[in-house]
Amino acid sequence: MLEPTLKLGLASYTLRTLNLDDTIAATARLGLKYLGFKSMHMPLDSDASQLKTIRQKVLDAGIDLYGAGVVYMRSEAEVNQAFHYAATAGLSVIIGVPNHELLPLVERRAKETNIKVAIHNHGPGDKLYSSADDIHEKVKNLDQRVGFCIDIGHVVRINEDPIEKLKKYQDRLYDMHLKDVDLAAAEGKSVEFGRGIIDFPAVFKTLIAIKYQGIMAIEFEKDGDDPLPGLAECVGYANGLLRLLDK
Amino acid sequence: MLEPTLKLGLASYTLRTLNLDDTIAATARLGLKYLGFKSMHMPLDSDASQLKTIRQKVLDAGIDLYGAGVVYMRSEAEVNQAFHYAATAGLSVIIGVPNHELLPLVERRAKETNIKVAIHNHGPGDKLYSSADDIHEKVKNLDQRVGFCIDIGHVVRINEDPIEKLKKYQDRLYDMHLKDVDLAAAEGKSVEFGRGIIDFPAVFKTLIAIKYQGIMAIEFEKDGDDPLPGLAECVGYANGLLRLLDK
Known about the structure:
Two copies of one chain form a homodimer. Chain A is of the alpha/beta class and 247 residues long. Chain A has a single domain, classed as TIM Barrel (Alpha-Beta Barrel), CATH 3.20.20.150. Helices cover 39% and strands 20% of the residues of chain A. The first copy, chain A, is built from nine helices and ten strands. Chain A has an eight-stranded parallel beta barrel, surrounded by six helices. In chain A, strands 8-9 form a two-stranded antiparallel ribbon. In chain A, helix 8 crosses helix 9. The interface between A and B is medium-sized, with 28 and 28 residues.
């Protein structure tokens, strides 16, 4: 069988109630090869030695530590910290939410470090980037390394079409959050893949068509205190679809 | 969307370390609508009141209690007990392993009660029914109600083709155990769907083509002490495939 073209990974916010070691073990158990850490698993103020230890633990489990986020950047100090953190931990992408006025500094750091910044849309109520279009408006004149982490759940929660956004912003699509939600409205909640309203076959076909090179990071927000069964169901559902779609 | 034609359920041996209530709760959590009990969840010597209480618990969770097994029948008393148990609990099928000399009695009870008997193949080393062909040899001249529970994992473990057996014995196929295994040999072990060697798209296409009316009962034997994540992955994988194949 050919290697699939799409890469399934995990946004570790899913396992926010698990400690670092259990998070790595669960990721390995589910056969996921790509991990993006949220700060409870790799704190933003970790020193270089701590970051290297964490990175090595992930690699030792046969997993690629490719990114981190969502990282909020509300000051120059936080921008500088985020890039130092990412460079030290060997990340290729920061999934971030920079304040608008900090974007010139973010652009400069991205060029200096060659680390991509994938700005994350957060749906209704997010004052900075509620829609992928808000991100586009802010990054279109910046260096190519500043782009998108399209969270398809939040696209649907703001009643927009994830397929359209994935296609439209494919040139700067550096990460994405794979998610199902039960309602195309602000109160829509994360559910197991296939139980909500997102058309996963269409999402995967689109990602294959645009030759998406990044990670599809599963972010399953339900069952925070016992996330593994729901996450496993999402992994199985994605793998079942990809078995037929991605060959 | 049309109702799918195939029905996904659970063989409760998967959850053999969980008690009855936790087994029902886990089945409901995974969205499975059909349950077949193994004896640790519904003991074979339960009295009528106990059986009715257990049945009601399952129904109250929105689940159909359709069968039980694997039930070994090594004496006339065990045959009589199995049919009394199934009739009292309102089951439509007994997944069973009757001794060969008891088949005339099994046939008589099946005709009296109109409860189907699905004889289970157990792969290499099983002296009674190692291959589906062994079952055929014994049931071909019996009443139509005595037929097969084809366990595709054990078919593969004996190095036979599950697609061929499902097609060949479709007229008496009353239950099946859905399973993936990592090796086409006696030492092959149960693994999460999609991680082993069984061609699930081919299995589902075959079941759709033969218009299979029974339950596809997931039997996941790995991780006995912590089966839920692996079982959930199996459920997701099956649902992902069925999303594309069964419309």
